[in-house]
Specification:
Elements lengths: L1 E2 L10 E2 H52 L41 E3 L8 E4 L15 E2 L3
Antiparallel strand pairs: 1-2, 3-4, 4-5
């Protein structure tokens, strides 16, 4: 049985066995490369969260320079986009775009005063539960 045969009078084309060998080789490559690629995805999400936390931290520092304080826990990160209270010294918005969600689709958690510094800003990671290891590890501003 021949597939992809061109009618040239010659017996050329691929046999079913040749096609099965190629499919088998591609399957083996996918089996070895796939897990490595998915392992990198978790690292990329953690790096993205760390970068976003650093960016939000910079915006919080600029807010503090203008206002003389960090936003309270109740004001939250929204104070970086909208004037809070009388806010006469507010020169925002301090973020060009809306406040991002973490790579797992959750809001970042912000506390001020923080337990680890002036403020705490963090994400619970892929499992959305405090603590964890690997992809489930928390991403925090104080480390």
């Amino acid at each position: 049985m021949k597939f992809f045969s061109v009618n040239t009078g010659k017996k050329d084309g691929f046999t079913l066995i040749e096609l099965l060998v190629v499919v088998l080789i591609l399957g083996l490559l996918a089996a070895f490369v796939g897990p490595k690629m998915f392992g990198q995805l978790g690292k990329a999400e953690h790096q993205s969260a760390k970068t976003q936390i650093e960016s939000l931290g910079t915006a919080l520092d600029v807010f503090r320079l203008d206002m003389g304080r960090y936003p309270t826990t109740s004001e939250g990160l929204n104070a970086l986009r909208q004037r809070v209270g009388s806010g006469e010294r507010w020169r925002g918005p301090y973020l060009k775009k809306s406040i991002p969600k973490d790579p797992w689709g959750e809001d970042y958690i912000y506390r001020c005063p923080g337990q680890h510094g002036d403020y705490d800003l963090f994400s619970y990671g892929a499992d959305r539960v405090q603590g964890g290891e690997g992809d489930n590890a928390d991403v925090v501003s104080w480390e």
